[in-house]
Specification:
mainly alpha
Length: 81
């Protein structure tokens, strides 16, 4: 049982190492990792302009077919810069 356990742990370590190497290679190639943004740059700019004009977060979320949290995250990111 001890030998099987050691082999399983070794395989797990190899898997983690290969995964990390693949992710590093993808980053070096310039690939974006993770989920696609809910709104593109044009839409983000439009959201910020309309927020500055005083429109409600919920109304913008409905119009852009996204969540209120996404709109608030865009606003927070713009304020942080």
């Amino acid at each position: 049982m001890g030998v099987i356990s050691c082999m399983a742990e070794f395989e797990r370590d190899l898997l983690i190492e290969r995964t990390q190497a693949g992710l590093a290679r993808a980053r070096e190639e310039g690939k974006t990792l993770g989920r696609k943004p809910a709104l593109d740059e044009q839409q983000r700019a439009a959201v910020l302009a309309r927020l500055a004009a005083g429109e409600a977060v919920a109304a913008l979320a409905r119009e852009f077919d996204t969540t209120r949290q996404t709109i608030m995250r865009i606003r927070a990111a713009a304020q942080a810069v």
